[in-house]
Amino acid sequence: MRQRSRQIIKLDDVAQQAGVSPSTVSLYIRYPEKVSERTGAKIQHAIDQLGYVHNKIASQFTGGRSSSMAVVLPSLANIIFSRVIQQIERTVSEQGYQLSIASHDHNLEKEEAQVRAILQWSPAVIAIAGADHKPETLKMLENSGVPVVQMWQVDGSNFSAQVGNDHIHIGYEAARFLVESGCKKLGYFTTRFAEDIRARKRYEGFCHALAELGVSVTLVDIPRTENIYQASRETLTKTLIKERGMDGIFCTSDAIASALLMEACDRGIRVPDQLSILGFGDFPSSAWMSPVSLSSVNLNADVIATRTAEMMLKMGSDENYHGEVCDVGFEIMPRGSTKLPIYTA
């Protein structure tokens, strides 16, 4: 998607589509209660069809540029997301930009509302996590003329600028890593599986590799709760009772993996001899867990932050630059919770 190559949808376009005057559209946007219900419905239908977003500060940027940029993420609770945001903010602020941050908690309806609100303030560039968005969100972004960088995931054709990882490949290599360490019955531990497209992509690759190797896998979707650590520990106990012989687990985050590791150690399960545990994200604490350090997948998050910020700055200053696809790669970091020596994808 190259937003600036398309005609930007304006208020006059909405008026023409709805068959009303521009002043009526303007009145509806500012004071919808002052427009008849029938006329308001026609205008709203035109807005939805065209993907129009009202620009609250267009007059400030006539002949100039916006001094703001924005990042839209599924969560700020993840320590890796937070670290990347800090690095992006530091880089763009050095060039005079203010960074707005929105978090939608894996709720695509909320993401749509956030993108609409952000676009009303005409940011120079938006970075948005992942490739899974509502069609209405994509239409708004495409028609806005605002450049977009897709971060955390290189997948799909929605945006020409992408920085991140191939999550199917990560899942594939994680499965091979565990099987090569001697695991014969695997579990894939996640939470909010239906909402997390990157977790689903990793599971797709995980299952593909295991099918090739003739190894079974059990998907374990941990119940959503405020205390993911406690829920993870309780889920491990129930799963090992039900799935006897499970000897390897790949988790969708180090938060889950560290909880499983603590529960296994507390229950006298020998890690990694009886159970191998592989995390995802390579949190700073993972290498220092005791009595067993946690093996994990390192996403090269610092590289994601650096390349995303660089691409945002270049797209904000050069209208002829539409970005590129940058797969930053990953590395499986073997530690005490798995058996193999270092393995690089």
UniProtKB/TrEMBL annotation:
Signal peptide feature range = none
Family matches, as Gene3D superfamilies: 3.40.50.2300, lambda repressor-like DNA-binding domains
A molecular function GO annotation: DNA-binding transcription factor activity
Domain of life, per lineage: Bacteria
Domain HTH lacI-type residue range list:
9-63
Record's keyword terms, sorted: DNA-binding, Transcription, Transcription regulation
The answer to whether keyword DNA-binding applies is yes
Q: Which Pfam families match?
A: LacI (PF00356), Peripla_BP_3 (PF13377)
Q: What is this protein called?
A: LacI family transcriptional regulator
Organism of provenance: Hafnia paralvei
Q: Upper lineage ranks?
A: Bacteria, Pseudomonadati, Pseudomonadota, Gammaproteobacteria, Enterobacterales
